[in-house]
Queue: 2 jobs
Job 1
Amino acid sequence: GAGVVIVGAGQGGFQLAASLREAGFDGPVTLLGDEPGLPYQRPPLSKAYLKGDAGIEQIELRPAAFYTQHRIILAHGRASGIDRARRRLLLEGGASLPYEHLVLATGARNRPLPVPGHELGGLHALRTRADADALKSALAGTRHVVVIGAGFIGLEFAAVARALGHGVTVLEAASRPLARAVSPDMSAFFVEAHAAMGTRLLLGTGVVGLAGAGGRVTGVEATDGVVYPADVVVAGIGVTPNVELAAEAGLEIANGIVVDDHLATADPAISAIGDAVAYPSRFAGGRVRLESVQNAVDQARCLAARLVGRSAPFEAVPWFWSDQGDLKLQIVGLAGPTDSAVLRGDPASRRFSVFRFRDGVLTAIESVNRPADHMLGRRLLAGTPRITPAQAGDEGFELKSLLT
Ligand code: FAD
C-alpha cells in the first residue's frame, strides 16, 4: 500500500513516524519536510543552542541512521495541495505522493511585524534553525538588542542575550508579560526577574515602526514616542498556524485545522496534529490550539495508536515549560483569564508555585523551580483534582497525600 504520509518533519511529524514504528506499523512511512537537514527540537533555539551550549547534534531528534533503521523515508520538499479524491499529496515542482493515510503536522509560522520598516536588515524572528543561526551571527558585535513582545520566546531570547553581555530592551504592548499564559502574580515575578538580569522591560509600550539607515535597522520607534536604538531587533509577537493545505482541500478551519477528539478531520483518510490543530479539550472547555512540545508529542502517540488499530480519544493533560536564565517555569493544565491564584511558597525564594482555581476546582499550576509541584499537578489534573485553595496555599499540607 501507499502507507502513511506525514507533511511536516517537526516535533509532531517526527514523533508520529517514530511512534508508528514503535507500535508495530509495518507499511511505508514518509516524512516530508521543507526545512534542510534532519528533524530537530525547537525549544533549544531560544535557549542552549542560541547561547552556544548545544550544537546541531544535540538538537537533532535522532541521527540519520535512525531513519534508515526504522524504514522512515525522509523526503525534502514542500506540499502544495491535496487531491483527496485520488488520495495524492501534491508537491511543489509537480510531483505527487500517494497515501493511504495523510497526516498534517505543518506547525505554525511567525506572525510578521505589521509596521513600517519591517523590510530592514537586522530584524529577526525565531522559529527555525535557520532563524537561530542567522540571529546567532547577527549578535556577534551587536550593542543594542530590542525585543518586540514579552512572550515566552521574547523573554527566553532576552535572558540569553543578557547572559551573552548584550544590552537588552523588551517592548511589550500589554500591561504585563506572558499575559496569555500565566497569572498576574507570575507575570509580576518575571518582571522582577528580568530587571534583576539587567533587561529593560517596558510594558504598555507598542511598536510604531522601525527606523533605519542604509537598509539596516537603527532603532525601534515606540508608542511612547521614543526611538530605542537597536542593531538587532527580534520580533516575538506570536504565530499563525499553517492551515493553507487543509483549507484549500476544503477541510474546516477554526483558528487551526479542525479535528475531532481522535485527531481526525472530516476526511477519514486525513488526520492532523500539533501546533496547527484545533481540537476539543475538556481542559479548555471547548476547542483549543496549543503550541507545545507535549501537545505535539502526545497527539502523535495517540494518532499512531489509532493507525495500528488501538483507537482512543486524545485526553492528555497539557503541560509546558520555559527556561529563562536560571528560572525554570513549568505550567500544567489550562487556566482561564479570570481563574483565581493561590500562592504556595515565597516568590522571593525563587521557588514557588501559583495554583489556579475556577469555582474552587484546580485548573492549572504554574511553578518556578519547583518540579515536584508540577509533577504532582500532572497526576492531579489527569483525574478529578480534589485539592482546595486552602490546602494549596498551606505549605504545611502534604500535597502527596492527595494521591493516595
Ligand atoms: P513544527 O515543529 O513547527 O513542525 C512543522 C514543520 O512542518 C516545520 O518544519 C514546517 O516548516 C513544516 N511544513 C509546514 N508546511 C509544510 C508544507 N506545506 N510542506 C512541507 N513541510 C511543511 N514548546 C515547549 O513545550 N517548551 C518550550 O520551551 C518551547 N520553546 C520553543 C522555542 C522556540 C524558539 C520555538 C519556535 C518553539 C518553542 N516551543 C516550545 C514550541 C514547540 O517547539 C512547538 O510547539 C512544536 O515544535 C510543535 O510541533 P509541530 O510538529 O506541530 O510543528
Job 2
Amino acid sequence: HLSNRLQVVADFVQPGARLADIGSDHAYLPVHLAKQGVISAAIAGEVVKGPYHNALTEIENEQLTAVITARLANGLEAIQPEDHIDTVTIAGMGGTLITNILENGKSHLTHHERLILQPNVGEDNVRRWLQDNRYQIIAERILAEDGHIYEIIVADPTDQAVSYTAVELKYGPFLLQEKSPVLQQKWRREQARLDEVIATMKQAKNAPQEKIAAFTQERDQIQEVIL
Ligand code: SAM
C-alpha cells in the first residue's frame, strides 16, 4: 500500500484519468491507481536507469503493462501527444527541480492538464511557477509522516490571470486559511532554525547587519502570519 504522502497525491487523481507520473521510481503511484481502477492509462517517466528498471519490474510483476508504460525520459519529455495525458503528478523532489521540470517541459503540456505536485522543500517556487503559467491552485494539503512534513499542491489550468500575494506564495493560499497544527509545526521548526542562524550571526565579529535584519524580519513574519 501507499505512503500517506502518496495516498494524498492519489486522492486528487480523478476517475478515468490518463496520468503521467514524472520521477516515478518504482511506479508505486500509477500501479496503485491502476489496481484501484481509478486511472485508464499511465506513463511512468524516469530519467535515471535504475528507477526506470524498478518501474518496469513493478509494472510487469503487477501485470499492468496494458495500462502503464514506463519511459526513460527527462521530465515532461516522457509525455507524447498521442498519450492524451490529462493529469500530471510530480512528487518527492525539491520545489526547484519540480519547477525546472515544468518550465523545461512546457511544450509537452497542452494547458489542459491537472497538476498534482508534492515538493519536499521550496514550495514557493512551485506556486510562483503555477501563477506565472495560469494555473489556479484548487487545493492544498499538509501532512507529517516519518518525521517529515510534506505539502501537496493541486492546480488546474485557467484562462484568467492568477495572482497570489507574497505571503500566499510562501505559505500556501489554502494552507494559510486552514492554519492546521501541522502547518504551525512546520513553521515553528523554520523559526527555530532562523533563531539559530540569527544567534550565530550575532556572535560573529563582523556579521552584516542587513542580513541579521532580514532573517529577523522573516522570523517575525512567521510569528505574525502562522503562530
Ligand atoms: N515520485 C516518487 C515518490 O514521490 O515517492 C519517487 C520520488 S524519488 C525521491 C525522485 C525520482 O525522480 C527519482 O527516481 C529520480 O530519478 C527522478 N527524477 C529526478 N529528476 C527527474 C527528471 N528530470 N525527469 C524524470 N525523473 C526525474
